[in-house]
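Supplementary material to the annual report.
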Amino acid sequence: MKDYLIVFSRGAGVFSMNLGELEKLVLKYFWQTPVADAKQVHAHFERSRGGSLNTIQSTLDRLYKKGLLARTKESHAYKYQAAKQRKAFIGELIQDVTQDFTHGSEGNLVAAFVSLSADLNETQLNELERLILEYRGKINSEESA
Amino acid sequence: MKDYLIVFSRGAGVFSMNLGELEKLVLKYFWQTPVADAKQVHAHFERSRGGSLNTIQSTLDRLYKKGLLARTKESHAYKYQAAKQRKAFIGELIQDVTQDFTHGSEGNLVAAFVSLSADLNETQLNELERLILEYRGKINSEESA
DNA sequence: GTAAATACCGATTGACTATCGGTTTTTAGT
DNA sequence: ACTAAAAACCGATAGTCAATCGGTATTTAC
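Predicted assembly:
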């Protein structure tokens, strides 16, 4: 007789689930198209990859349940839109996948820099410095307000 | 009669697969412990999470086949070790999960900065600037060599 | 040469995406 | 109010993958 309990858990991050290929495509679609219903999404993907309207509908529903799409019912159809802007999503994604491997004191971004710096060119370094300056300015003006 | 072919593919990135909870734990273990065999890994995890030696063995094998662990046979047991250092792994991970969502011209790191900057404190900004300077220095000395 | 340690094989379970047929619900128009 | 169309909803199936572990084949040490 087992006197213990085995608990299985998958994913502890922001999303706690993985994204399939179609889900990724649909997300990208909604970063280009503010609002669309299932029919429109289906029309958009029918040519490039096929698939039935039902497949699109259940994918939209899955993304909605994951909190990645928002929806409102308008007459008899749901209108979907991205729940997060692309960059915010990417940020959460990075946090999600890295948090298991980064230590508390070590910022994810700093880890990312160390990890990716080998691929950086001068232009990107300049851009990054510019962003840091810009961000510093924002902090300071907030503090003095 | 179907005259078309449906191709399913999951993941196109560096790893082209996902990591389970145990796999993550084992990876982290090998970033702290340079070399270990299945028995040692099992001994380490037995207390905290249980599981049989076989489970550890197949997990090690899976990580090996994914290229995340290296192994050499020593007498009758494989000795495993991390194939990638932690930060390199994190870098590839970030690239992997973001590449579907970032545009070619936009560096992943720059995207990461924009995404994560809301969480940055002054210390981390300083650290980042320091890293940029350091990295610039490295580039320059390589160029003049 | 045998016993112990380890690798190897294969099966099962559970989670998740993709897919789509069929049924129910909702709404618009008459 | 009735009906037809549209859409949502339900449920089934297949494929991928991690986790798990029993059983068998190898390998090595003595």
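The helical segments of chain B are 21-32, 38-49, 53-65, 86-98, 108-116, 122-143.
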